[in-house]
TrEMBL record, chain A:
Belongs to the ABC transporter superfamily. GO terms for molecular function: ATP binding; ATP hydrolysis activity; branched-chain amino acid transmembrane transporter activity. This is ABC transporter ATP-binding protein. Gene3D superfamilies: P-loop containing nucleotide triphosphate hydrolases. Residues 1-236 form the ABC transporter domain. One of its GO terms (biological process) is L-amino acid transport. Keywords: Amino-acid transport, ATP-binding, Nucleotide-binding, Transport. InterPro entries: AAA+_ATPase (IPR003593), ABC_transporter-like_ATP-bd (IPR003439), ABC_transporter-like_CS (IPR017871), BCAA_Transport_ATP-bd_LivF (IPR052156), P-loop_NTPase (IPR027417). PANTHER family: HIGH-AFFINITY BRANCHED-CHAIN AMINO ACID TRANSPORT ATP-BINDING PROTEIN LIVF.
TrEMBL record, chain B:
InterPro entries: ABC_transp_permease (IPR001851), BCAA_transport_permease (IPR052157). Belongs to the binding-protein-dependent transport system permease family. LivHM subfamily. Keywords: Amino-acid transport, Cell membrane, Membrane, Transmembrane, Transmembrane helix, Transport. The keyword ATP-binding does not apply. The keyword Ligase does not apply. The chain crosses the membrane at residues 12-29, 60-81, 93-114, 142-159, 180-206, 212-231, 238-258, 264-280. GO terms for biological process: amino acid transport. One of its GO terms (molecular function) is transmembrane transporter activity. It is found in: Cell membrane. It is a multi-pass membrane protein. GO terms for cellular component: plasma membrane. This is Branched-chain amino acid ABC transporter permease.
Length: 236, 294
């Protein structure tokens, strides 16, 4: 069953149109990776989905149309979490406060439980819970940004290049964590990633994006084998 | 020695006023990235409201409460109507010009309604000055200090102990992220402007007997408050308080002790010292670095 269905989505920045009639759908419970060159419009696609930029067309989340109605409800309340490019943690807030902000709309008791849970999964964050987020390393900030988005218990998580700027070892840890999260939570993920090698390993499906358009959905496994893809994205 | 302590205490009691206005500037800056030069005049307008109500026979405490409430509403309305659209369009220059415009309009409106004749605002407390050791402090100043401490404590509780306060800090820190998490960003901005205006008005009423209520009453204070907020770090509420106290004390001591300077040049000395600090720490004592990065 598809959780998200996007139809003829157009979006951009002011006069600049970046997405041209994008249509695709993603399956509930799956990890779908979006691959594409720099400037293809991957981040723009995620921004349009989460309402950071205006868009036209149709975005249906579990049958609910996000683009109808004059005012969009906050996406966090609709069950979408977005970890933006560049992380966007609250540098002047402590690690724990960042998590609390993520759980803003959930009851207090649940927030406490979730914080404990994420600190178990990310021990590095637990050790730094009272430190300001600005003082964390890039990898720690990325973990924090993801954990913060997960505090809202999203049904759909949008992840924009989580491995950006991370050392290979840190990237490995990050993907291990993503796998652990997947096992723990019943969640659908739309992942934009430069690291095609790792992302195709954890993904079920893949979408290729070129110049503001999205190609047909294909199984990740097929792309791993595809000679053209290997040359373009896997550096083989 | 007595003079020295007296100067310190005088400096602190003046500094509290700078700190309060600096605090309102910081609250507004954090949400709208605007140093609102109209802040002090909005406070003075609140002072006029309180005076007018009391002149019409409303009991003074009630007049104060009404004026503070009206200022809160005015501040909140300004944010909703003129400030937010420009802030969302990232039009900093237009915002700055609008804030200067509001300053001028308020001065003219006050002058038009109430004229330039000084209005006698009653003291909230009367009686002989209190002596603490060898130092003398007027009762009204003690009230001002007490009120400032209560304001600071309430703000601390709001920011550090409440969910909404967490949202206010998060929204000030990174607005796009706060929106993505569904935090009530717009409400935090409106409330910040309301609180800032309310604090200003309360202070304006309390200092009016000594500063003489007339249009532009707090403009000299505004200058010091801007300096104090910059010194403390324009995005740091704690910094604003510390900056205000430092500016108050430095200004007083310079006037008394720097040879050949006297009362006329004491403000210049205060500003020179602040400039020195800012050359070393552009973000101010407690400000975050990103604020000065452009
Ligand atoms: N904030 C912005 N304002 C104006 N134009 C933008 C903005 N962000 C991106 N663009 C433009 O939109 C196009 C797509 O950018 P986008 O960031 O979506 O690409 P991307 O696929 O995420 O690239 P990358 O892999 O480098 O992150 C680019 O041509 C870019 O110049
Ligand atoms: Mg991108």
């Amino acid at each position: 069953m598809s959780l998200l269905t996007v139809d003829r989505l157009c979006a951009g920045y002011g006069a600049l149109r970046v997405l041209h009639d994008v249509s695709f759908s993603i399956e509930e419970g799956n990890v779908t990776v979006v691959l594409g060159a720099n400037g293809a419009g991957k981040s723009t696609l995620l921004r349009a989905l989460s309402g950071m930029i205006p868009a036209t067309g149709s975005i249906e989340l579990d049958g609910y149309e996000l683009l109808s109605g004059r005012r969009r409800r906050p996406i966090a309340l609709l069950g979408i979490g977005h970890v933006p490019e560049g992380r966007g943690t609250f540098g002047g807030l402590t690690v724990e406060e960042n998590l609390r902000a993520g759980g803003y709309h959930r009851p207090r008791g649940e927030v406490e439980r979730s914080i404990t849970e994420w600190f178990e999964l990310f021990p590095r964050l637990a050790e730094r819970r009272d430190r300001l987020a600005a003082g964390l390393s890039g990898g720690e900030q990325q973990m924090l940004a993801i954990a913060r988005a997960l505090m809202a218990r999203p049904r759909l998580l949008l992840l924009d290049e989580p491995s950006l700027g991370l050392a290979p070892k840190m990237t490995g840890t990050l993907f291990d964590n993503l796998r652990a999260i997947r096992e723990r939570m019943d969640m659908t993920v739309l992942l934009v990633e430069q690291n095609a090698h790792l992302s195709l390993q954890i993904a079920d499906d893949a979408l290729l994006m070129t110049a503001g358009q999205v190609g047909p959905r294909r199984p990740a496994i097929a792309l791993r084998e595809d000679e053209q893809i290997r040359r373009a994205y896997l550096g083989a | 020695m007595t003079t020295f302590f007296q100067q310190i205490v005088d400096g602190l009691t003046t500094g509290v006023i700078y700190a309060a206005i600096a605090l309102s500037l910081v609250l507004v800056y954090r949400t709208s990235r605007l140093v609102n030069f109209a802040q002090a005049e909005m406070a003075t307008l609140g002072g006029f409201l309180a005076w007018q109500l009391s002149d019409w026979g409303v009991p003074f405490p009630l007049a104060i409460a009404l004026a503070v409430a009206a200022s809160f509403a005015l501040g909140a309305t300004m944010e909703r109507t003129v400030v937010r659209p420009l802030h969302e369009a990232h039009n900093e220059l237009a915002l700055f010009v609008i804030s200067l415009g509001i300053l001028v309009v308020l001065i003219n409106v006050e002058a038009w309604i109430w004229g330039y004749q000084v209005k006698a605002v009653p003291l909230v407390i009367d009686g002989p000055a209190v002596s603490i050791g060898s130092v003398l402090v007027s009762r009204q100043k003690l009230v001002i200090v007490a009120v400032a401490i209560v304001i600071a404590a309430l703000l601390f509780v709001l920011f550090q102990r409440t969910r909404f306060g967490l949202a206010m800090r998060a929204a000030a820190d990174n607005q796009p992220s706060a929106r993505l998490l569904g935090l009530p960003v717009n409400a935090t901005m409106t409330l910040s402007w309301g609180i800032a205006a309310a604090i200003g008005t309360l202070m304006a009423i309390l200092v009016a007997p000594q500063q003489f209520l007339q249009p532009g009453m707090l403009l000299p204070v505004l200058l010091y408050a801007v300096a104090a907020a910059t010194l403390g770090g324009i995005d740091s509420p704690v910094g604003a308080v510390i900056g205000g106290l430092i500016v108050g004390v430095v200004e007083n001591l310079a006037g008394t002790y720097v040879p050949g300077i006297g009362q006329d040049f004491k403000s210049a000395v205060a500003f020179l010292i602040i400039m020195g600090v800012l050359l070393v720490r552009p973000q101010g004592l407690l400000g975050s670095k990103s604020v000065v990065r452009v």
